[in-house]
Amino acid sequence: MSLSVLVVxxxxxxxxxxxxxxxxxxxxxxxxxxxxxxxKRAYAPLLESHPHVTAVVAxxxxxxxxxxxxxxxxxxxxxxxxxxxSLRSAALHALLGGRWGTWAKRRGRRxxxxxxxxxxxxxxxxxxxxxFEAARTLGxxxxxxxxxxxxxxxxxxxxxxxxxxxxxxxxCPGAAHWNKRWPAPHWRALARTLAAxxxxxxxxxxxxxxxxxxxxxxxxxxxxxxxxxxxxxRGARAAVANDSGLMHLATAVGTPVVALFGPTSPAFGxxxxxxxxxxxxxxxxxxxxxxxxxxxxxxxxxxxMIDLDPARAAAALESLT
Length: 321
Known about the structure:
CATH topology of the largest domain: Rossmann fold
CATH superfamily of the largest domain: Glycogen Phosphorylase B
Largest sheet: 6 strands, parallel
Number of domains: 2
Structural class: alpha/beta
CATH architecture of the largest domain: 3-Layer(aba) Sandwich
Distance between the termini: 48 Å
Oligomer: single chain
Mean pLDDT: 94
């Protein structure tokens, strides 16, 4: 009988993307395994077409853990992997029972980096490989390949309709938290520089992020949904992104990326994973100031992002194309 594996990672986008090397390794070790992935509804489309996922159970907006547990109880699980490590996933442990594989979030290391600027591990272990700690009993090991996200034919068709067959560069100005976002004037300056050099430009993100690149020279891929966004990133010659989910999505579809790091640090394990990329960051005594970003700059100057010059980003992007 094939193994039945339950994988839980509710979000966010980048974290979900970075679980895919583990999915591939489980599939390689156990070709007949039934892998069920539990995630938020927003991220389900990226996994429903994934070749290493058998089924997706979407946590609906406003749904409680008890309701989710009722939907999962009808299946016998040989292995349960908690790749989230939150109070909600811990509640799911209690409701479903059984033994769960977990991973260490290295909170102590993060605290030393943020509080004292002290790094206890060099080089840092990428988060994508730390997830493997939860699957010790499955015989899965990292294979050195990047994360992987697969688009559908409909995603590809919608992306192609937007760009009309032209080569292009992708700019992704959004991030979950304000202080991780490069300022809008910098994005516009970069877009103008690239357009002057003859590049077609596609802006990618949520509908609300359109304001960062509201320019006639920029083809809008804002608000198209995650599947078409992944297809747009796959078709790009290279991309520029903040430390964000779209940065990880770009690497997972094989697109070289310039990653802009400000309040956070690649030392937390979230650098572009196993894919050509350039990290731009400023060496400031106040950074990193956060593991995930926040609503303001604690020092009230936001120099970690403001001081990343658009000309430097343009040069890094050209080096990847």
